[in-house]
């Protein structure tokens, strides 16, 4: 297949990816309206579902005894979520509202950094995996409680038959989202392989972005549908899902990590971007456009550093 053909295929797939995300965003808001459940909490659950590509990769790496590859992809995905996607979302939307409470942001950040901290002894043990799984459910419960106490969600009744259709529409949208994002990632890898780019560089820069294409699609469509709370919670939910997946993989098969200078650098970068996330979450009860630009710039700096390292 020619380079032009690959680029055209990617463009077409991105179009259908957006349409799939439209289906999800519209129907998730209908579910929230029917049950009176905060859209923010449903976004956290949606974040788990859009992380199915990462889970699939994790299982494949487990079978092939290469779990550390999945670990790197999942940790790299945190930079994409908190740096690239959240940063651009805040910048384009001219700000994203939050509840402005450190008590809401800190549990998310601690959960996100926990696998890296646990890995400093050179391995993620089965006990570490159990701890990560428990931490995931604790933070989700905390987020649900916080959302219920802070947001009044008026109900909009939908018939039982209509709700079944809405549910299946969401599931169909998620399946299509995963299919199209996987196809885009495969075509992108084919394009980069044709250009003879370092496979290690592809993994760090492209792969973590490729596996988060569902989150990118949902976030972009949430902007256009004026559902910023869904955009924000989907990003956080996906980040938490990455931690849950690491926990499941470690529980099934503990794995070792090479704690070299690169690992320490990644840990430092991740700690810094999560600190920015917590600080910006509280200031003025929103992520401002300027703060979004800072997050995006930090992600760009991280990518440049990785490119320089592998070059």
Automatic annotation (TrEMBL):
Residues 7-142, 167-307 form the Sodium/calcium exchanger membrane region domain. This is Sodium/calcium exchanger membrane region domain-containing protein. GO terms for molecular function: calcium channel activity; calcium, potassium:sodium antiporter activity. The chain crosses the membrane at residues 6-28, 35-59, 71-92, 126-143, 164-189, 201-223, 235-255, 261-281, 293-310. One of its GO terms (cellular component) is plasma membrane. The keyword Transmembrane applies. It is found in: Membrane. The lineage of its organism: Bacteria, Candidatus Joergenseniibacteriota. InterPro entries: K/Na/Ca-exchanger, NaCa_Exmemb, NCX_ion-bd_dom_sf. GO terms for biological process: intracellular calcium ion homeostasis. Keywords: Membrane, Transmembrane, Transmembrane helix. It comes from Candidatus Jorgensenbacteria bacterium RIFCSPHIGHO2_02_FULL_45_20. It is a multi-pass membrane protein.
